[in-house]
């Protein structure tokens, strides 16, 4: 019997493993560093003091026949077709790589020592524990995660002074309508937005900006994007400059055809454009890859992966959100939805993502 090992039990890995269990009669193992599925797209809420629903992977996998190994993958040996999990060798015929991503410090000095992130459960828990009741929290970054973190913290901690620092206006890739709404929300939540200068260094009680200014801060949250672990590149699997596995149109590694990569760890392209690291792309990639593996096990060739974007959803605390309609290539259209309707849409998508992966 063929052996499939899926590494990483996030949105991509868990979707892949569930689908493989339904579609194949292979021996399937899921390896994940934590015993729980982490709803990563709620980590800014968790950092702001809200609870996450308990989600043990063992519960999710009950009745599927999938073996769960809780441990950290430390090496992949593609020549021997085995992985190392905390010193234990696990062999595979097919490997599905779904190790996700971590916060990217872009090499800025002081981030590791003096800043926290909301990119992983342990980091977000530290933010939750250390966020002061009063004082200043500086959120570095102007992308969607920075916006979600800043608004959530400002709403949950009304006595806190939340400051965003970004080289460009937050949400600069959104439409003009969306940016206008963001400005209104930042004013309502009294979030200070500083643009035009980047953070050159993070100190224990201030951030040093490229324009020479050095605003004081009680806590710094680094939210300037994600990068992937170096494990794939270190194992000799072909990756791009950022360490994401280069795959063909069937999510299969271009250097190792018995390895598939899905989610943030894979650099998949549709019509030449890289899919962005997102829960919205991770799930479809994973379901597709499971189908491709099942098809090949039957001796047939799968159709290439197809994907199109419809919208981007951004939470702005619990009382507001932004739904930005986009075209198939993720370019913003004029239409945005805000307020209660957008909150319902965003919440339904977040719940749906959990339901689909975890059930
Ligand atoms: C605060 C926040 C808000 C977000 N909001 C959105 C949003 O609204 N919409 C959206 O589309 N995306 C959002 N994202 C991005 C989204 O969370 C990721 O793109 C998505 O989680 C990627 O799924 P994945 O399965 O590839 O990785 P992950 O969900 O990160 O899962 C990777 C899994 O691999 C495990 N793992 C890692 N290394 C090892 C190892 N060495 N050994 C064993 N296991 C390992 C991890 O423990 C984890 O379980 C958000 C991210 C954050 C942090």
Automatic annotation (TrEMBL):
Query: Per the UniProt entry, what are the Gene Ontology biological process annotations, in alphabetical order?
Result: aerobic electron transport chain
Give this protein's Gene Ontology molecular function annotations. Answer: NAD(P)H dehydrogenase (quinone) activity
- What UniProt keywords are attached to this protein's entry? FAD, Flavoprotein, Oxidoreductase
**Pfam families membership:** Pyr_redox_2
What is the superkingdom listed in this entry's lineage?
Bacteria
Positions of the FAD/NAD(P)-binding domain:
3-273
For activity, the cofactor(s) needed are: FAD
Q: Which PANTHER family match?
A: 64 KDA MITOCHONDRIAL NADH DEHYDROGENASE (EUROFUNG), APOPTOSIS-INDUCING FACTOR 1
Family to which this protein belongs: Belongs to the NADH dehydrogenase family.
- The identity of this protein, by name, is NADH dehydrogenase FAD-containing subunit
